[in-house]
Automatic annotation (TrEMBL):
<dbReference type="InterPro" id="IPR000445">
    <property type="entry name" value="HhH_motif"/>
</dbReference>
<comment type="similarity">
    <text>Belongs to the Nth/MutY family.</text>
</comment>
<keyword id="KW-0234">DNA repair</keyword>
<comment type="function">
    <text>DNA repair enzyme that has both DNA N-glycosylase activity and AP-lyase activity. The DNA N-glycosylase activity releases various damaged pyrimidines from DNA by cleaving the N-glycosidic bond, leaving an AP (apurinic/apyrimidinic) site. The AP-lyase activity cleaves the phosphodiester bond 3' to the AP site by a beta-elimination, leaving a 3'-terminal unsaturated sugar and a product with a terminal 5'-phosphate.</text>
</comment>
<feature type="binding site">
    <location>
        <position position="188"/>
    </location>
    <ligand>
        <name>[4Fe-4S] cluster</name>
    </ligand>
</feature>
<feature type="binding site">
    <location>
        <position position="198"/>
    </location>
    <ligand>
        <name>[4Fe-4S] cluster</name>
    </ligand>
</feature>
<dbReference type="GO" id="GO:0006285">
    <property type="term" value="P:base-excision repair, AP site formation"/>
</dbReference>
<dbReference type="InterPro" id="IPR003651">
    <property type="entry name" value="Endonuclease3_FeS-loop_motif"/>
</dbReference>
<dbReference type="Pfam" id="PF10576">
    <property type="entry name" value="EndIII_4Fe-2S"/>
</dbReference>
<dbReference type="InterPro" id="IPR023170">
    <property type="entry name" value="HhH_base_excis_C"/>
</dbReference>
<feature type="domain" description="HhH-GPD">
    <location>
        <begin position="38"/>
        <end position="186"/>
    </location>
</feature>
<keyword id="KW-0411">Iron-sulfur</keyword>
<keyword id="KW-0378">Hydrolase</keyword>
<dbReference type="Pfam" id="PF00730">
    <property type="entry name" value="HhH-GPD"/>
</dbReference>
<feature type="binding site">
    <location>
        <position position="204"/>
    </location>
    <ligand>
        <name>[4Fe-4S] cluster</name>
    </ligand>
</feature>
<dbReference type="InterPro" id="IPR003265">
    <property type="entry name" value="HhH-GPD_domain"/>
</dbReference>
<dbReference type="InterPro" id="IPR011257">
    <property type="entry name" value="DNA_glycosylase"/>
</dbReference>
Amino acid sequence: MTNAKVRHILDTIAGMYPDARCELDHRNAFELTIAVLLSAQCTDVTVNKVTKDLFEKYRAPADYVSVPREELEQDIRRIGLYRNKAKHIQSLCHLLIEQYGGEVPSAHDELVKLPGVGRKTANVVVSNAFDMPAIAVDTHVERVSKRLGLAAEGDSVLEVEKKLMKKVPREEWTLTHHRLIFFGRYHCKAQSPNCQVCPLLDVCKEGKKRMKTSTVRRTRKSG
């Protein structure tokens, strides 16, 4: 893909979602880390409903480790995989207290050592809590990147991240991450993308294929 096409994509999604941002409610790096951990296989809307009360009850790592795990499980029961997540949260908090003075580390290499924190979560935390450029590849970013040709269909999540980091200017990494998420969440959806009104149809193989199929079906029906 040429630099001009990449620029076209970036400018288009910037025009569509100029105010794209992290939609997980949080007040600090610690709350963001917990929220992102909870968001795995769960919508941001559901996470925000749960953390509204959770973050009032638990303000610091010590609060999470001071209660029985069963109590924490009940507090996050509406979240998918809540038992595993409760276990990760308490293990994470123990580690923060024992090795980091109760504070979330700002270094990516340190963040991925925390229980339940993978590369994607670490990227979200460093970019949103510590203002370090990063691109976190979630299901929306992966899907949209492949549909628009920014990555290949068979690329792994890490390969998608590396290609985006190479093609997108570093100072635009974080904003692009948010805009790709908004584009995938609200426009280029997994099952019913808005191809018919998409301003990026010209660079989207998936969209062209869908529109062609749709045209053929309409032609058959009319015939």
